[in-house]
Design goal:
The complex is a heterodimer of chains A (493) and B (236). With 493 residues, chain A is an all-alpha fold. Chain A is 75% helix and 0% strand. Chain A has 24 helices and no strands. In chain A, helix 19 packs antiparallel against helix 20 and helix 20 crosses helix 22. Chain A starts with a helix and ends with a helix. In chain B, a hairpin with a 2-residue loop joins strand 9 and strand 10. In chain B, helix 2 packs across helix 3 and helix 4 crosses helix 5. With 236 residues, chain B is an alpha/beta fold. Chain B has a single domain, classed as Rossmann fold. In chain B, the strands form 2 sheets. A 6-stranded mixed beta sheet of chain B has the order 6-7-8-3-9-10, sandwiched between helices. In chain B, strands 2-1-4-5 form a 4-stranded antiparallel beta sheet, covered by helices on one side. The chains are: A mainly alpha (493), B alpha/beta (236). The interface between A and B is medium-sized, with 34 and 35 residues.
């Protein structure tokens, strides 16, 4: 076990994160501290917020009423995001290490997951202000109780996620359980809030059964997971080789049917659709189409200039997300590209048209939905579309050539450091800040602000769109000039 | 394809020379094997042929034109060195068709070509609708070799083509290479550790050691058993 834990530490210490430059590490550290600080402050001010919203009861009671909601949310988050450390044991399966030991290691190692502790950034300062005044013991009991609740979620998710892939479907019984819980919650909200509060109060009063019950549940699920893990090892061995192709779909054939660019569009589409990380970006499109009009519906369209960055995301849509990684996606078959008779200028133009087209397809339903409730935003949005498809795409594609980090588009995206680099951070930063330039220039025009922004954004966009052959040629040239450096970097990983 | 020539070719990593070949000519239509121990510079040489790395000095010339920074050789060259030459989210069939298209071949022509590789590819690739990334290493190797050969290149460059293949497939590919070389006069450059296969099919064997050509053998004038003796001596 010690050896396995030591290897885990080495694996962490030698991960991609530590291969990044000092500047990037600092930047990531600052972002990390910012998020942690934000959560700590939120916890610190939560008693005041609860006091204002529920003035009739002490903040800790209000908070405990919402415990069920917090941990239901936590469970949902874990189901989607938390990964079991099963990949860490693959290399040991062929060695004379007992499988029981490997299963135990996975279980122990999984407790180090950040998901088990992030809530305490809010809970600890909150309990300090709201529970510590009751007694020191109550404070520690509250911490322990919260940890046990997190432990139940953790154990449940580990149990689900360590089962062989095919058996996960068998866990669909969780769906009716969730529906039942939601229905009961909807029918008896007061009782639910009350039960949740009683649990919290039982924790802080040191009521033994309140601790023993969750502890027993954790032990039971962990025992089941340990048993299941030893059987699951066999399934994991075969997981990699069973994936079958989805086949050539109608969209593949549609893209391929265009003369000239068709073959590249077909390839681009397949790269997006058939790789987990790439398709994750693609799947954001419907969410954006629904989410953004909803945002303006609730937030109003009065102070629209503060939403400018949001406009970039909507108007550029998929292209903005995707083109940050331009060419890094191709890093895995870059040797093929470099040795085949491909017209690089055409290849890059095809990429540009493809993502501008996808961005446009995303924009249309957004505009239609916005015309309903927030018509003021439409012109601004259309202007932003031109701006993003013009200068911003040009910048992203230029910067993409400099982004020489190898990336597997099929790896999962959440908290995956692969492919992130200083260049990428800088690219995003400059993209975000570039909108300020549009705002500043439009400030000097003798029109109302929305009209000025529309004029500047559209004019700059159209300029780049009209002359796109020129700048894409520049990228192709740069691409070929950088070929050897890119290939060297790709091979380093 | 006319002459392939190397002039004062050097590749240096830091202080260390990975390759140093003052001059080398590859005759059109020859089947040249490159052998050497690990780190001898075989792959570096092939990468320089394909302009995948930059030479520290000198150049590789095809038809008297430098390969570096030019494109003229690409539509006449087929190559497979490693998995970087595969588009792993395509199925083998899609990959063959896409590669063919890039070389100006239509689907029908590609399918016609593929018939000649039916036995080599086997049922595991032909009948299976798997993405390349889900194939075994040996099958990936087969896909890469076939994609390089099916476009009728005038120059074929393969790195360790016999690696990861089962014994039958090794024999089939050996025969296919020999047949293609004889029938179409394809110039072939093949690096390998497998001396038996190379000596069987090659009209020339170049032995590299620490980046330098230490032997350049042309059977039948030269005895290819010399290669084996060389490595035996090295091992002792």
């Amino acid at each position: 076990m010690n050896m396995l834990m030591r290897h885990t530490w080495l694996g962490f210490r030698r991960s991609h994160y530590y291969e990044h430059s000092m500047g990037l590490k600092l930047l990531m550290l600052i972002v990390g501290f910012f998020i942690a600080g934000y959560l700590l402050l939120f916890g610190l001010f939560l008693p005041l917020i609860l006091d204002n919203v529920f003035p009739d009861q002490p903040p800790h009671e209000s908070f405990f009423s919402l415990l069920w909601l917090i941990y239901a949310g936590d469970l949902m988050l874990r189901i989607f995001m938390q990964k079991p450390p099963k990949q860490l044991v693959q290399a040991y399966m062929g060695l004379p290490v007992r499988r029981k030991m490997l299963a135990r290691f996975i279980l122990v190692r999984s407790w180090f997951s950040l998901y088990n502790y992030y809530l305490f950034l809010i809970l600890a300062p909150f309990y300090l202000r709201a529970v510590l005044p009751i007694s020191a013991a109550a404070f520690w009991y509250a911490i322990l109780g919260s940890f046990l609740l997190a432990g139940i979620n953790h154990s449940l998710v580990m149990w689900i996620k360590t089962r062989p892939a095919g058996q996960v479907r068998g866990l669909l019984f969780l769906v009716p359980a969730a529906v039942l819980a939601a229905t009961l919650g909807a029918l008896y909200p007061k009782q639910l809030l009350d039960a949740s509060m009683q649990l919290g109060l039982a924790f802080i009063s040191g009521n033994a059964p309140a601790f023993i019950l969750p502890l027993a549940i954790i032990f039971l699920i962990q025992w089941m997971t340990s048993k299941g893990l030893q059987r699951a090892f066999y399934a994991w061995q075969g997981e990699e080789t069973t994936g079958m192709a989805t086949g050539s779909g109608k969209l593949d054939r549609f893209f391929a049917s265009f003369p000239g660019y068709g073959q590249y569009w077909e390839l681009e589409w397949r790269m997006l659709w058939r790789n987990r990380r790439a398709s994750g970006l693609l799947k954001q499109i419907p969410l954006t189409i629904i989410g953004i009009p909803l945002f303006f519906y609730f937030m109003g369209d009065e102070d629209i200039t503060t939403y400018t960055y949001l406009f970039v995301l909507i108007a550029g849509g998929h292209g903005f997300n995707y083109l940050q990684y331009a060419y890094s996606w191709e890093s895995r078959f870059f040797d093929w590209i470099a040795t085949r008779p491909i017209d690089m200028h055409k290849f890059i133009r095809a990429k540009y048209y493809f993502h501008a087209g996808l961005g446009f397809l995303q924009l249309i339903p957004v505009l239609v939905l916005l015309s309903w409730h927030s018509p003021k935003v439409i012109w601004l949005m259309a202007g932003m579309f031109f701006y993003v498809t013009g200068p911003l795409f040009a910048f992203l594609m230029h910067a993409g050539v400099k982004n020489s980090t190898r990336m597997d588009p099929n790896k999962r995206a959440s908290f995956n450091m692969e492919g992130t680099s200083g260049t990428l951070f800088l690219t995003i930063l400059v993209s975000m800040l570039s909108v300020i330039g549009v705002m500043v220039i439009s400030f000097f025009l003798p029109f109302p602000s929305e009209q000025s922004v529309f004029i500047v954004a559209t004019a700059s966009g159209l300029l780049f769109i009209v002359f796109h052959k020129r700048w894409t040629r520049g990228i192709a040239k740069k691409f070929l000039n950088q070929k050897h450096q890119l290939l060297n970097k790709y091979r380093e990983r | 394809m006319d002459r392939i020539r190397i002039e004062q070719l050097k590749k240096q990593y830091g202080e260390q020379f990975a390759l140093d070949i003052p001059s080398l000519d590859i005759a059109p239509g020859s089947l040249t094997g490159i052998v050497g121990n690990n780190g001898a510079g075989k792959t570096t040489l092939l990468r320089l042929f394909l302009d995948l790395i930059e030479a520290t000095e000198g150049e590789v010339l095809i038809d008297d034109k430098a390969v570096a920074g030019s494109e003229h050789w690409k539509h006449r060259t087929g190559s497979f060195l490693d998995e970087g030459f595969l588009i792993d989210f395509l199925t083998p069939e899609e990959f063959f068709h896409f590669t063919g298209k890039v070389y100006g071949m239509d689907k029908k022509a590609v399918d016609e070509q593929l018939k000649g590789f039916d036995r080599f590819l086997g049922e595991e690739i032909n009948g299976n609708n798997k993405y390349i990334r889900n194939l075994s290493t040996g099958n990936k190797q087969k896909v890469g070799i076939v994609a390089a050969m099916l476009v009728h290149p005038e120059l074929l460059i393969l790195d360790e083509p016999f690696n990861f293949l089962d014994p039958s497939s090794q024999i089939i590919i050996r025969k296919l290479l020999k047949a293609d070389n004889e029938a179409r006069g394809t110039t072939m450059l093949i690096s390998s550790h497998n001396l038996n296969h190379l000596t069987e099919i090659c009209s020339r064997v170049i032995l590299l050691e620490r980046g330098k050509v230490v032997k350049d053998l042309h059977p039948p004038q030269d005895d290819l058993a010399e290669v084996e003796r060389y490595f035996s001596l090295q091992a002792e």
